[in-house]
TrEMBL record:
Pathway(s) of this molecule: Amino-acid biosynthesis; L-lysine biosynthesis via DAP pathway; DL-2,6-diaminopimelate from LL-2,6-diaminopimelate: step 1/1
GO CC, alphabetical: cytosol
Protein name per Swiss-Prot or TrEMBL: Diaminopimelate epimerase
Role this protein plays: Catalyzes the stereoinversion of LL-2,6-diaminopimelate (L,L-DAP) to meso-diaminopimelate (meso-DAP), a precursor of L-lysine and an essential component of the bacterial peptidoglycan.
EC category name: isomerase
Organism: Sulfobacillus thermosulfidooxidans (strain DSM 9293 / VKM B-1269 / AT-1)
Family per similarity comment: Belongs to the diaminopimelate epimerase family.
Amino acid sequence: MGQLEPLRFTKMHGLGNDYLFIDIRDMEEVPDDVWKDYAIKMSDRHFGVGSDGIILIAPSKVAPVRMRIFNADGSESEMCGNGLRAMTKWLYDRGEFDPGQAIETGAGLLYPEVLKTEEGRASVIRVNMGVPRLTRHEIGMLGQGESTCIDEPLDLDETMLHITCVSMGNPHVIIFGPLWDEQTMARLGQKIEHHPMFPHRTNVHSVEVVDSHHLRMRHWERGAGLTLACGTGVSAAIVAAVLTERVERHATISVPGGTLEASWDEGTGVVYLTGTAQEICQGVFELR
Ligand SMILES: N[C@H](CCC[C@H](N)C(=O)O)C(=O)O
């Protein structure tokens, strides 16, 4: 692995979906395969620090700052909803967040808003997650590029599922029904993540409709496996549930790590995600 000088990081989480933040704005250019290696080694929960991935606080040509996310398996994703709330907190708490500013992501320029603070530190953040992408082409699925995938059958040999697919810049498969337990989520999540229909793989979510304003979810994340929360997955779930007329446009979403509020605005088509973000610790990573 390409050797970097000792890396300062901040460990943060959004409902237990935890990431190691590294400010690289003053660093020399580092090849992506070095970050891939660092993501794998730093995320390891026994031989490293332990996280669902790393997030780089990077320079941007189109916004004050850019967010790049590498999953625990080293793969890079376009977007991370919990990570974006945590990054907003990281910037705000250091006096580097200007209200109304954008953060550049793989899903475009997104606009977070600090809704609540505690002792001068951001605690609740709302993110304009942008508009969902619904065509197979935009989601990165095989098949008719301009067609959508809403409540369609997926034959997994052992079982026939009905899936609804939504991209928030990153791909998500939503399966409605009684909430899967962890074992089922892991078994079927991994199969669907690597299904040939998704050449770039996909995130997978089991979603139970509690009532027209409340969903309960479990996540299998591309490149990270079971996680306690998935912000883009929650955003995809409210879109899929509204499209299939299972909920109203504003709902509370219960995930293993806590609760998020999500809404899909009818006028603008924008999804809003509101929830907490917390800083756990800071440290220096150096493999010796
Ligand atoms: N595993 C995801 C990235 C992290 C998304 C999730 N942690 C969130 O909060 O949105 C992917 O490969 O698309």
